[in-house]
Amino acid sequence: MVAEKTKHYQGKNKNLAALGEAIAAKLKSEGFKVQSKSDKDGTIVQAQKAGVLRDIVTADRAFTILITGQPNDFAVKIGIGKFVQNLSVLAVEAVLTAGLFLVVDVPEMLWTTHVQKGIIDEIDKIVNSSAASA
Q: Which residue range(s) make up the domain with 99?
């Protein structure tokens, strides 16, 4: 089973790199260990909750958020992915062509879905705010 969700946004006029930074900052403020990378192909944010996520899932996993598209038509995909040790040296294009999200089992998916919903709610708030406008 896969616990991955994609949300599409249109007419929001967002700077996608700034949106990724705002999402990363929000997750950091909630106690996540966060790393992010933006380039011409999109933005990746990885967030790992020390203690909780590691107790529930394998230590090398993290919530992976991928933002792709244009300022007025973009998608945000969120799921569990392998934690990349040094995301800053990885091209977003390489992640787009690789298997980004992992298959998770039922107990892990239930927990993931719960936390994922909270993260998506926060992303919706950020997208619908005036912050990170293009």
A: 5-128
